[in-house]
Structure formats: C-alpha cells, structure tokens
Amino acid sequence: MGVRMSGYAEAARALDNAGFESVWVPEHLALPAGTPTTYPYTSDGRPPIPSGTPCYDPLVLLSFVACATTTVRLCTNVYLLPLHHPLRTARGAVTLDRLSGGRVTLGIGVGWLKDEFDWTGEDFSSRGRRTDEIITILRRLWTESTVTHESESYRFGPVEFQPKPAQRAGIPIEVGGISAAALRRAATLGDGWIDIGGDSPEDLARNVAAIDAMRAEAGRDGQFEVTVGGQWGVNLDTIRRAADAGATRVVAGPYTGTPLSGPDVATWADRFRDEVIAPFNEVNG
C-alpha cells in the first residue's frame, strides 16, 4: 500500500494495535525513466509500479516503523541482496534487529531490473550465484565470532562482527521468486518463501509441494513460512484459498492509486481485522 510519509508512524501504530503480524516494504535503488517492459511476473512485461513511484531505503524506513511500534515484525519484500556488499547488509539488518528487539525478517530476491546493476557496477549475470553466497556469509557473520571469506566475488577478514542479532536463532531470511532457482534457494538456504507473481491456487500448491520435497531431501525440517500477497490478500475468501494452497502468511493492504493518510490506514486496518482476520482465526485458530 502507498502511505504518505507524514502518516507512516500513525499507520504503523494502527497496524500494530489492530493485531497485524508484520509490515512489509520493498526496495528499488532507482527506476528508469519511462516504463521498462522486462518485468518477469506480468504477461506484458510491465511492472506494477510506474517509474515515478517514490522509493525509500527499506532498512531506514523500517527503523522508523520500529520506533513507532512494539509487536509487528519488520520485513522486506524484497531486499535486492546482490546489489549490496554482504558486510553492509549484515550490519544494516542486525542494527534494525537490535533496535526493534528482534523483529526483523529479511525477505530477499535476486532482482530483475538490470539497469540497477549497471548503475551500481554490479554484475547482473552472476546475481543468483552471489545471492546464494551472500546468504551463507550473512549467517556466518550473525553466528560466528570470527569470519574470513575469500571468493571470486567477496574477500574480507578475519573480522569480528558484533553485535549479533537480538533473535537467538538469527534473522530469518525468506527468499522471493517463482523461478526454479528461487524455489531451490528457498528450500535449501531460506527460512521461508515469498511468492511473487500472483499464481493460481493450483500453481501455489504445486510450488509449495516442490519446496517441501526439496527441503525433505536436504534434511531441513525447521519452521518455514510461505508468504503470499497481491490478489491473495483481498478478502476472507482469497485468504482461505491461499491457506488451503499452503500459505502461512498473507500480506494485505488497502491497494489504491494514491497514497493514504495515517487515519485512512487505521480505518482500513480496524475493518480488515473485524471482517477478515477475526473470522479466519475463529475457524483456523
């Protein structure tokens, strides 16, 4: 949803007070002038946001949200992991996690807009391989006392990385995308999967089953979230269908063409809680 910057604190508090589980914000460093036609998740290749859409740094924005809330999780959807050096990502995420008392989920993706990689001097073709590598680096920095890393893409250390995350199990990393590589990455390296593209219930269930099979093959049986949004968060019926297809979290919002004020979001949040969340929880616990 689009929220006026002046209303972010009030909107965040409204979601917190209404019992929403999490707040999700996207990332783009910059958007090209005009409308690119290379977006991989729509039939015509056009992205769902116009090029003039305001973009904010997700970790900075979520730090502001953290100071205005007490319980909602602070999540990125998605943080473009291979656009950033892993040391910088590790530092930003752990700072937010400590500031918020352990409420961060790092939703990550490889990125689709080649321009952003060209503009920042990062290689687009290797972004998948580097994403796998960065996930491993982040987990080491957040758990090990001293870390040395040397590869074709990243070289540092030995370093002592302090503080560690507030979450004892580490900051959850959920992987976004619907390609075969993204499903494999989520299953073998992630703590969850973020569906992108608005699949049908059959497609969603098939992807969840594929991830479950790969997790079982890899011997991974810990907690795993399946996050969906877009068309799935419209009403009680769509949320029920998402849950039946394997989703554990549905991202909803008052999707409008213009930014909303804090009171607008508060009104929507209370109505959505009463009309959708409460009836769903009565049946599903």
TrEMBL record:
NCBIfam families: F420_Rv2161c. The keyword Flavoprotein applies. This is Putative F420-dependent oxidoreductase. The keyword GTP-binding does not apply. It comes from the Bacteria. One of its GO terms (molecular function) is alkanesulfonate monooxygenase activity. Residues 9-231 form the Luciferase-like domain. Keywords: Flavoprotein, FMN, Monooxygenase, Oxidoreductase. GO terms for biological process: alkanesulfonate catabolic process.
